Q: What sequence folds into this?
């Protein structure tokens, strides 16, 4: 009597064969579910989209790109072209964004320092290569706009001197590498202190980024300052 | 900041020979200045004092930003001997000012030099000597010199300010240096005290006070404290202002039955009537050349600013905007007039050219009143109310930030800058 421990029908807590069967079935169902789900998951993985990277490049870069793309056959050259493509748009396109400048922080690297970096020089040379002799009017304007913004950014007028001043004109002569050879007041504002802010702005903004192949056009520059 | 009306250029034209372009000023910007004061080791406290006075002067003009000495690369000793401009360009110093302070036995000497690191040159140098008891004057002279070298106008740092402090129904006349130092009560217990004006010689002050409930005009001797009445007519006697040569005082009197501008000759002690109009004319102010008077008049219905030649002629209207324009004060350079106007239903301090053009709002607020120019025309004072207590504010005449120069717990008004 006492041997029949498992199937004691009088004890409601004892286990029957049907119970084992039920447990086995439940396990089977769960495992099957997991297997099915896993399989379904793996098949319904989204098809990866083709990624399109959009980059802003200048007209010159585009020209370069087109030039570079045509002789596809040479893998060597393409390798060289790639880094140039990635780096060059920065100096050209970023410059204007700096026009809005935050308050001066004495510990930060200075705005008054040279803005020319080696990568920028590289850009210049590349451009020269690409465009050959002549830059388009748009290109020239871009260079002028850069100069204009640089001078504007560095022009500090610390006080209003008097209201009888006129708009002064400054002639700035540049060297081939963009440094200032001379800056002279052609037409004075009528106020010496204001005049000196102009020269200061030019000297602080220098050196300038100018196109090598058309250096002659940028050698002599006339800047009309418009004080408030 | 009212900056960046960056009217971005566009007169870009490229000719073969020269590039031409325009550069627009969008705002006024302070110059970064590295200020270095050096002295013998024995005079450390004087050195510090001079540094702090000059630093505060230049900063308060809002034309300079004093660079933190912690950012300096070059040390003081070597800089006093020879400037390495590159060291200063790197930290962004637009200017370097050095001052060697020397104890000369009962006297102090300050040798100031100003340099431009971007053009790698010395702009100016000067030596000042003062008695030991005038150390602050010496310090302000250093500030003035740096200011003049860079800005091109005289500094206003060795000047004084008067204002009225009201307590209950009494008023005191307070004197202080423009930087708030040396503050003292020079005249006590006035029954009301309005619109003090400093004579060009700095000794006398013309003011409007009351005896009982009757207004009268008095001069106040800053040296002796003596008060003497010079205008106590029936009715209104108000808003006195000295002529630039100090000989006349213009004021508004109403004994004729109507407020008109009259002129008092200090030498002959005689009054003469200047305006004659059924409208109310008040708050006269002299042009710096002494040939014109500007004043407030409601002759066309609302209070407006007019000017009229001393030799006679028709009054010309200056203020063209707003229905309320009062309290004109002619700038020392003569090109502008500061006045109180309304802007969006708020009182405002503004300046305008003599022909009514170039209106420039400087500050708005409650009870913005009584403008006063610094003698160099670079700064303006005015009083403004804050919960019943007025404070005096200082603001650059070209804009910038208004800074209170009187304590928050006293009622201060009617500022007058020495000339």
A:
């Amino acid at each position: 009597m006492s041997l029949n421990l498992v199937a004691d029908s009088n004890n409601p807590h004892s286990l029957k064969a049907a119970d084992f069967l039920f447990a086995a079935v439940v396990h089977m169902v769960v495992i099957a579910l997991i297997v099915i789900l896993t399989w379904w998951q793996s098949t319904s993985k989204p098809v990866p989209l083709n990624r399109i990277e959009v980059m802003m490049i200048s007209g010159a870069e585009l020209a370069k790109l087109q030039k570079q793309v045509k002789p596809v056959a040479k893998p060597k050259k393409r390798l060289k072209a790639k880094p140039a493509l990635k780096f060059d748009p920065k100096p050209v396109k970023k410059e204007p964004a700096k026009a809005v400048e935050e308050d001066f922080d004495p510990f930060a690297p200075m705005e008054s320092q040279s803005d020319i970096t080696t990568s920028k020089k590289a850009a210049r040379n590349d451009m020269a290569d690409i465009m050959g002799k002549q830059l388009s009017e748009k290109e020239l304007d871009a260079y002028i706009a850069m100069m204009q913004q640089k001078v504007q950014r560095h022009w500090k007028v610390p006080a209003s001197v008097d209201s009888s001043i006129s708009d002064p004109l400054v002639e700035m002569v540049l060297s081939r590498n963009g440094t200032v050879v001379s800056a002279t007041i052609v037409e004075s504002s009528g106020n010496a202190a204001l005049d000196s802010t102009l020269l200061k702005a030019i000297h602080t903004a220098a050196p300038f980024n100018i196109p090598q192949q058309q250096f002659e056009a940028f050698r002599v520059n006339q800047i009309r300052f418009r004080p408030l | 900041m009212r900056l960046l009306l960056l009217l971005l250029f566009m007169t870009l034209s490229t000719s073969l020979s020269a590039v031409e372009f325009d550069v627009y000023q969008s705002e006024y910007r302070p110059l970064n200045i590295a200020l270095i004061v050096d002295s013998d080791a024995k005079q450390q406290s004087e050195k510090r004092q001079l540094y702090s006075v000059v630093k505060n002067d230049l900063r308060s003009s809002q034309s300079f930003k004093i660079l933190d000495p912690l950012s300096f690369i070059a040390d003081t000793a070597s800089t006093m001997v020879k400037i390495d401009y590159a060291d200063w360009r790197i930290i962004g110093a637009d200017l370097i000012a050095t001052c060697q302070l020397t104890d000369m036995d009962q006297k102090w000497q300050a040798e100031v030099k100003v340099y431009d690191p971007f053009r790698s040159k010395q702009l100016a140098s000067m030596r000042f000597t003062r008695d030991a008891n005038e150390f602050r004057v010496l310090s302000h002279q250093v500030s003035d010199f740096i200011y003049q070298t860079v800005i091109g106008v005289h500094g206003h740092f060795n000047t004084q300010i008067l204002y009225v402090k009201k307590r209950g129904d009494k008023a005191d006349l307070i004197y202080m240096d423009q930087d708030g130092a040396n503050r003292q009560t020079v005249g006590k217990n006035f029954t009301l005290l309005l619109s003090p004006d400093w004579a060009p010689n700095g000794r006398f002050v013309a003011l409007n006070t009351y005896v009982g409930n009757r207004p009268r005009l008095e001069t106040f001797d800053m040296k002796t404290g003596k008060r003497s009445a010079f205008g106590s007519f029936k009715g209104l006697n108000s808003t006195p202002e000295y002529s630039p040569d100090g000989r006349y005082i213009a004021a508004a009197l109403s004994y004729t039955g109507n407020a008109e501008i009259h002129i008092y000759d200090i030498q002959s002690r005689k009054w003469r009537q200047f305006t004659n109009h059924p409208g109310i004319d008040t708050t006269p102010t002299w042009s710096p050349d002494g040939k014109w008077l500007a004043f407030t008049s409601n002759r066309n219905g609302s209070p407006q600013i007019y000017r009229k030649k001393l030799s006679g002629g028709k009054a010309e209207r200056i203020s063209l905007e707003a229905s309320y324009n009062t309290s004109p004060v002619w700038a020392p350079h003569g090109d502008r007039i500061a006045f109180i106007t309304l802007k969006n239903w708020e009182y405002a301090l503004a300046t305008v050219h003599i022909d009514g053009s170039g209106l420039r709002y400087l500050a708005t607020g409650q009870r913005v009143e009584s403008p006063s120019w610094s003698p160099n025309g670079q700064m303006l004072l005015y009083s403004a109310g804050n919960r019943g207590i007025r404070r005096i504010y200082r603001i650059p005449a070209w804009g910038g930030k208004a800074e209170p120069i009187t304590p928050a717990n006293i009622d201060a008004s009617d500022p007058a800058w020495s000339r």
Observations:
- Residues 1-9, 69-102, 111-126 of chain A have pLDDT under 50 and may be disordered.
